[in-house]
Write a structure and sequence with these properties.
mainly alpha
């Protein structure tokens, strides 16, 4: 009986190839699990960030609405005060003119 080197090399090559393929498949499975876990964590973080951002935007919009109401109130108050000042000025202008006519230009009122 002679030792057949070609059969031996074929068997060894097939065995090494099988071990390599099985090892590669296990490694790829583990890699897929790790990538899937990392992507899941990243997606969860993105969802939490989006929720916080939405809450912040909502709060800013509420603040903006309050500020708009305050500006509107201040504008109305400004308009009313301006009308009051104009009314007061129109009432006092004739009296000021009378005082100016009654007092000579070189004298000072005390």
């Amino acid at each position: 009986m002679t030792f057949d080197w070609s059969s031996f090399l074929t068997i060894i090559t097939a065995l090494a190839t099988t071990v390599f393929v099985v090892t590669a498949a296990l490694w790829l499975k583990k890699l897929r699990q790790a990538v899937s876990s990392a992507l899941g964590d990243a997606a969860g973080q993105q969802v939490r960030t989006a929720k916080r951002l939405a809450e912040t935007i909502e709060q800013i919009q509420k603040n903006q609405h309050v500020l708009e109401q305050q500006i509107h109130t201040l504008a109305l108050a400004h308009r009313q005060l301006r009308q009051d000042v104009q009314a007061l000025a129109s009432k006092t202008e004739p009296a000021d003119a009378d005082i100016r006519l009654a007092v000579p230009h070189n004298k000072t009122l005390h």
